[in-house]
Write a structure and sequence with these properties.
The structure is a single chain. Helix 1 crosses helix 2, helix 1 packs across helix 11 and helix 4 packs across helix 6. It is built from twelve helices and eight strands. It is globular and about 55 Å long. The strands form two sheets. Strands 1, 2, 3, 4, 5 and 6 form a six-stranded mixed sheet that branches. Strands 7-8 form a two-stranded antiparallel sheet. A hairpin with a 2-residue loop joins strand 7 and strand 8. Helices cover about 45% and strands about 20% of the residues. By secondary structure, it is an alpha/beta fold.
């Protein structure tokens, strides 16, 4: 948080996503500050794999940004991967290795910022009587030059690769572009680096290194057979003109208005099960 903003409330796209999903869920995280009953490593293997790949890519981007600065200590991406449990590494490292060997993405971008935290004042709530003590914040994966334009960069990993229209609906990206422009970056939109996680299952009595090698071989075989990376890796360019961002920010401000004004946080029963999984606070609410 910037100096001088100790008493300012900060909202993020993550907090608003939780509120829109279920106000009660938001209250557990942000009002009562209750930790989920189980750690993310215990409840979400796919999330952990995505987090590992994400952090490794941050290390690669950081090295690219400082490649001419010899005072900067180089960070090998595998040193990041090694901080994760072995079963997560066995699913993450093959995807990273194939991505690096089969795509030219990191050769085509110029990192300007990596893991950049940005904040901006929300000072046009006069009609809502909220004053000027609100800020919007977010942590961007990066801001990069690509194809002669400036973009907000975001890495996404999933079991299935969504199409471009799926990402067009992400409120997070509108917030990130708004923050970047407020900070003086003339971004063209969002560059989504989408990766598919491994879908094959570990065999009985197969060691984790053997499993990792089989994942890697399976990916390479499918890429070579089908003649491209599209089954595993895709780059989406989401153009975000000012008019689109301004329209999206009205929805953002409406959500923040309700967060600030609510005193009862209702349960949204439609979201008690999310992608066929119970909410992390399902037992708490039910109890």
């Amino acid at each position: 948080m910037n100096a001088g903003y100790e008493n300012v409330k900060v909202h993020t796209s993550s907090s608003m996503t939780k509120y829109n999903r279920c106000p009660k869920l938001w209250s557990y995280y942000y009002k009562h500050k209750v930790n989920p009953p189980e750690s993310i490593l215990d409840t979400g293997e796919a999330i952990s794999v995505g987090s590992c790949i994400h952090e490794c890519f941050d290390a690669i981007l950081t090295n690219l940004k400082f490649k001419n600065d010899f005072s900067h200590k180089s960070i090998e991406w595998k040193s990041i991967s090694e901080t994760y449990p072995e079963h997560i590494r066995s699913l993450s490292e093959p995807v990273i290795e194939v991505f690096l060997s089969r795509t030219s993405f990191f050769d085509e971008i110029v990192p300007v910022e990596v893991e950049q935290e940005l904040y901006a004042d929300l000072n046009d709530f006069e009609d809502y009587d909220l004053g000027a003590n609100l800020r919007l914040g977010g942590k961007l994966d990066g801001i990069v030059e690509y194809d002669n334009n400036l973009w907000v960069l975001d890495h996404k990993t999933s079991k299935r690769l969504p199409n471009e229209n799926h990402y067009e609906l992400h409120q997070q990206f509108n917030v990130y572009c708004w923050l970047a422009r407020k900070a003086g970056y003339d971004v063209n939109g969002v560059l989504v680096n989408a990766l598919k996680q491994a879908s094959i299952k570990r065999k009985k009595d197969e060691s984790l290194p053997e499993f990792a090698e089989r994942i890697k071989s399976d990916m390479i075989s499918k890429i070579e057979t089908k003649g491209g990376n599209q089954d595993f890796f895709r780059i989406y360019r989401l153009f975000k003109p000012e008019s689109k961002i301004d329209s999206a920010m009205e929805d953002v401000k409406n959500t923040i208005f309700h967060i600030e004004k609510d005193f009862i946080f209702r349960k949204n029963s439609a979201s008690c099960f999310w992608f066929n999984r119970p909410c992390e606070f399902f037992d708490v609410c039910r109890g």
